[in-house]
Protein 1
Amino acid sequence: MLTLFRTGRAAAVVLVVLAALTLGACGDNDEDAAATTSTTTTSATQSTVTQPTGQPAPTRPSVRTETFEVAAGAVAGGARRIEAKAGEVLRLIVRGDVTDEAHLHGYDIRADIAPGSDGVLDVTADIPGVFEFELEDSGLRLGELEVR
């Protein structure tokens, strides 16, 4: 009878300890809630971003695209002025029937172009002023970038 009492008492102690551990792990803890994260996978870039749940996703600046077409030694529609606000992000695309180098002066950003291969210049407009944009080898003026 004494052995049965000791075994039953040991089992009861084990059950109490397990119950305490289970309740402690399941408690409503604000620190646990704050540490909860969500994961987002973007298929286009195949990157994974993990951030705290309840926080807004970081926003990427919008990118404005301007395209310049060059044919028979001239810019379709003529050279033009692109106006941008400070901090704006631009993607300048140059395509045409020539092999040359597109160059945005002041920012000193360059891109090679060739028939069937566009030149792409990504620019964050963070230098105020007016900057010439041209085909470097031929001197063909594509336009200018004005940053305010």
Protein 2
Amino acid sequence: MNSAIKEKLIEIAKERISNDDISHDLEHTLRVLSNAENISKIEGGDLEVIIPAALFHDLIVYPKNHKDRYKSQEESAEQAGLILKSLKEFPEEKIEKVKICILQCSFSKGIMPEMLESKILQDADGLEATGAISIMRTFASSSQMKRIFYDPKDPFCKTREPSPFEYGIDVFYSILFKATDKMHTKTAKEISIRRTKFLVSFLDELKLELEGK
């Protein structure tokens, strides 16, 4: 992609993305962009589709406990389309592909991406659900949702099903530990495996601390 167009898209993202939810703020978007570009270097894909899709995939974000949370991708895709149509220098024939990538971005919905670019974007966003970043995002969301850290009777879901809307640690079992299996590209899967090992070590340390050790 032309560097001037890329910089213009980044500036638009800076103007349009809200920082009210720090789990889906500008820094999250820029990390997803970096993930996507790094994956694309190895896996291929059209950066003229991948870059704007990564930058605009979270233009609209509803809180995870909001009744309209499943509309975030649809509304973000529509907004992205309008932005790109207003840019004469952006190839009009690629706008629809950008919108498809955004619509298929969320792996938590169980969406199977159709295009390589969609797979790369979903993987890039999914990597935010692994490793140190995922822990910070989980508890940032917990604060926003007034969700407590863990179930004091069974912190590690030994005798119950995970309840991610009630307890922060339950997100590990319902989402974070499942991220690797949902990766589409070899590159993202390898990164996710390494990051997941860190999640395990975090819970091991938490267990020791809760036992007073």
Protein 3
Amino acid sequence: MRFKNYKNSYTNDNRIYSKNEMLDMTVREIKDRAEEFIAQHRVLGLPDEDELRNSSNVIWIDEYTRDDGTKVSGHWRSLPNVGISQSGAPTGNAVSVENNESTDYEQESYDSEYDAEEFETIKAAQKYEESEEYKKQYREREKQKSIERKDPDEIAGVKRGEPKTFFEMMQQGVNPNYQGENDYDDKYTTNCTSCTVAAELVIRGFNVEAVSALIPEVIAIRPSSKSAYIDPKTDNECIPDIIYIDEIGCYEYLEKNVMEGERYELAYNTPTEGGNDEYDRVNENRAHVVLVTRNKDLGIIVYDPQTYSVYENKKAKLMLDSWFQYKKQVIFPRILRVDDKSINQKYINKIVKKADTN
């Protein structure tokens, strides 16, 4: 995917220069960095600022001063590809390990947290096998939850069938038209809010997939946003909780609060100028939402149903740390438990459609 895990072959660094940034440089600066620009151009060209802002594979670093007094201007950096994901067309494919080269800060995190022996254990765990007895017990629990949630019999013209486990949903996939983030005209690269809801509905037994493009009203980016979910006890639209990452790490919060079998949406934004408060100062073009659950054997699992990427346990921590390590770059992440919530009938037909079985 464009920009992800990029490293400049001349500097061995993951900094990405934009066309706009280069145009603002002096002739001397361009001459001094000529080899660096040439190395980037061979791989990425010179993307403009809008392209970088609209990519989830880069992060903006504010200007800062090093310990020696050197000022470093604000700039873009590539994010690492540290996850476990499906390759090729997602539907029906097995989950496989991506062996991409690590960026410097990803490797530092890896080396400091666990050794090669544990990494081999993680890779061996990716079979995601579930016994028939487990599936039977799971479906019985989900059917009981369905009654408590007041699930409808039909959504988007699709009648409710047998519930699926989280891993069965992953194998099926809900965004079959996704062509990768380098396809900039493809609206299936900006439909994360639809994908998370579609994935939850597949688990509930509805054979649906996500519609194209961003549906901003279905994820609570701000407390005033609409929600795809309703509290079955109060019939009110659900507002997610804020994770205060200055007080506790995002992964640490999940470890403490997410119980086995529960399912959550996890969303974040980067800030922008203006706005009356912290909730208004967000850049909705750089927002994303994923799913979180806990598995007895694999621990915390973060799954992106838009791109079919899945991160478990320590991999989940690395991914979340890469999201939030520059804390000034995100508005407080928000989390909402969804497996115990009702579906908001006002918006659901905007969010999903009957799955294409061809």
